[in-house]
Amino acid sequence: MARSVNPVDMAMGLPRQQLQWAQSLHNVVNGGLDQGVPTGKDSTGNFNTFTQGNANGVLVRVGASGSTGNQYTWGSSNAPLVINHGLVDTNGKPRQPIGVHVVNKNKSLDVYLPVAPNESTITIHPTDATAHATLYIF
User: Fold this and answer.
1) Which spans in 1-137 are helix H?
2) What's the rounded Cα separation, in Å, for the pair 76 and 128?
3) HSE of 91 in the Cβ direction (CA atoms, 13 Å)?
4) Which of 117, 62, 48, 58 is nearest to 87 (CA)?
5) pLDDT of 99-112, one tens digit each?
6) Whether the Cβ atoms of residue 114 and residue 125 lie closer than 8 Å to each other
7) Do 120 and 83 touch, CB atoms closer than 8 A?
8) Domain definitions of the chain by residue range
9) CB contact at 8 A, 37 and 18
10) What is the pLDDT of residue 83?
11) 111 near 124, Cβ under 8 Å?
12) What predicted TM-score, i.e. pTM, was given to this entire model?
């Protein structure tokens, strides 16, 4: 895929706000968008800690029931897990997540939300508490 022209090359002909918008678009088009950066691994070699990327969401690793070394672990198949997500809007105010996406898993797993999320937590229910998973909360 071809890369976009860097807007800085046209800086003289663009108003400041338009240049900032064009630079943001240029960064996204050229792969400058990330959901998070892994910062640690668990004993199995899977990433288990992350820093927040420049997308408005957070990656969370959830270990199987009874496992150690992860920020969160499933309680049991019949117990929901409450996660403090820390999402904020563009004004820095806490915001309610839209949902959750399973990014990585070691076996068949589905998750669902038994109650609506709020500005500080999201409650997630697994179909199999023996699975390890990385979740993207957005």
Assistant:
1) 16-29
2) 8
3) 3
4) 58
5) 999 999 999 999 99
6) yes
7) no
8) 1-33, 36-137
9) no
10) 97
11) yes
12) 0.72
